[in-house]
TrEMBL record:
Name this protein carries in UniProt: MFS transporter
All residue ranges annotated as the SAM-dependent MTase RsmB/NOP-type domain in the record: 139-428
Any one GO molecular function term: RNA methyltransferase activity
Amino-acid positions noted as binding S-adenosyl-L-methionine in the UniProt annotation, renumbered to this chain: C244, A245, A246, P247, G248, G249, K250, D265, D291, D307
Matching Pfam families: Methyltr_RsmB-F, NusB
Positions of the catalytic residues: C360
Length: 428
């Protein structure tokens, strides 16, 4: 890429990393606080540095530990973050070494006692780092330990390494769901139509500058995120309740498919984003700002979608902060709310209607286990198994029980997809 970020961007990148890694702020929020006042171009640099630092944190820190003769003390935290961001610029953004070394050192201030060590270690990264980090085994260091351990136990070493290979890639493609004519849009935007039906393009400049955005011809939605709504089949003329709807990718899909959609979300702000997305797309839905656990209606619906809040461990390709911000305890913590939302959703499914439950999590506690527990509580529901091939996916994207389980390594040769779980349940 050959990026040479200016000094304000480098300082803001350090602040962003401090906010994410030391204060637990989500990356997008940290970027707004640390870089919100910078110009567009500088903000893009900050984002690129932060993304590469977080994506490759594991591998870079593995090398930092090797290059240091003894670990940095606690008071050297800024020096450590300067090394992390500096190495990311050298190894993954192709920034020129002299600028990276000088400016990362200068971020520490004239009186810092860590200037010498940061200088020496960054020079070592410049000399040896590219070769050492290029080894395939380096990739598995990128994954946070807690996720690597879980995924190795569940999917095995080969799949773990395929997932790590996809998560390693910095150029994450952009997926668009088009209202019609996927081939035409793929040709116009220089992309391809995926077997799942999404149009995939290389990430480039700002999304609103792309052809068709202002005219509302498509919206951004990861290929995996389109699959849950497709499990309902033909939606034209059917009523659909979207229980956790914002920012509205799935609401838009259902509305474009001809459903009469009621979209509920507890966040009024996120619901506003949903409404403006629908306005741009010239699609309609009834929107309700409410906690779905208290949502009250006489009506029942032909289709109910519950895209439940979750740890989002399936979205590390675009959100590498998530693996460092969350841990094992968060996985278990959300299951109570997921059960409650599922029970509430079940009450709105018309006889003969369909409930689709999904999460963008890789963890079974937020997917398979929730559905097993739900079916044990609700005798009136049965699973309608998913056909992976009909969705354009390999057969291992459906579990033995018949649920959808996509992995980042699915469509791996084309850049992968988000890890998603979805179950289709029919009300007798
Ligand atoms: C995974 S996101 C939904 C993404 C959305 N379905 C889409 O495709 O764009 C989860 C959403 O659930 C909402 N949410 C979380 N708990 C909720 C609750 N108890 N009731 C209603 N909405 C809730 C959050 O505000 C968030 O917008």
């Amino acid at each position: 890429m050959g990026l040479s970020p200016p000094p304000p961007a480098r300082a803001a990148a350090l602040d962003t990393l401090r906010r994410v890694l030391d204060r637990g702020q989500p990356l997008d929020e940290a970027l707004t606080s640390a870089a919100g006042r910078l110009e567009d171009r500088e903000r893009r640099f900050v984002r690129a540095i932060a993304l590469a630092s977080l994506r490759h944190k594991g591998s870079i820190e593995h090398l930092i530990a090797r290059y240091l003769s003894r670990p940095l003390p606690k008071s050297g935290r800024d020096a450590h973050l300067a090394l992390l961001a500096g190495a990311a610029q050298l190894l993954f953004l192709g920034s020129p070494a002299h600028a990276v070394v000088n400016e990362q050192v200068n971020l520490l201030g004239q009186r810092s006692k860590f200037r010498g060590v940061v200088n020496a270690v960054l020079r070592r990264f410049d000399r040896d780092g590219r070769r050492e980090i290029g080894q395939p085994e380096a990739r598995s260091h990128d994954l946070p330990d807690w996720l690597a351990r879980r995924w190795r136990a569940r999917f095995g070493e080969d799949t773990l390494s395929a997932i790590a290979g996809v998560l390693w890639q910095d150029a994450v493609p952009l997926d668009l769901t088009v209202k019609s004519d996927p081939d035409g849009w793929a040709a116009r935007l220089g992309g391809e139509v995926l077997p799942t039906g999404s149009v995939r393009i290389a990430t480039g400049g700002p999304v609103p500058d792309l052809e068709g955005f202002d005219e509302g011809r498509w919206w951004v939605q990861d290929a995996a995120a389109t699959l849950p709504v497709r499990l309902f089949g033909d939606l034209s003329g059917r009523s659909l309740l979207d229980a956790c709807a914002a920012p509205g990718g799935k609401t838009a899909q259902a509305a474009a498919g001809g459903a009469r959609v009621t979209a509920v979300d507890r966040s009024p702000k996120r619901l506003q984003t949903l409404q403006s997305n629908l306005d741009r797309l010239e699609l309609e839905a009834e929107t309700v700002a409410a906690d779905f656990r208290n949502f009250d209606r006489e009506e029942v619906f032909d289709a109910v979608l519950l895209d439940a809040p979750c740890t989002a461990t399936g979205t590390l390709r675009r959100h590498p902060d998530i693996g460092w911000l969350r841990g094992e305890a968060d996985v278990a913590a959300l299951s109570g709310a997921q059960d409650e939302l599922l029970d509430r959703a079940a009450g709105f499914v018309a006889p003969g209607g369909t409930l689709v439950y999904c999460t963008c999590s890789m963890e079974p506690e937020e997917g398979e286990t929730r559905i097993a527990a739900f079916l044990a509580r609700h005798e009136g529901f049965r699973r309608a198994p998913v056909d992976a091939a009909a969705l354009g996916l390999p057969s291992d994207a459906a579990t033995a029980e018949g649920d959808l389980r996509t992995l980042p390594s699915h469509l791996g040769e084309r850049g992968g997809m988000d890890g998603f779980f979805a179950a289709r349940l029919v009300h007798a």
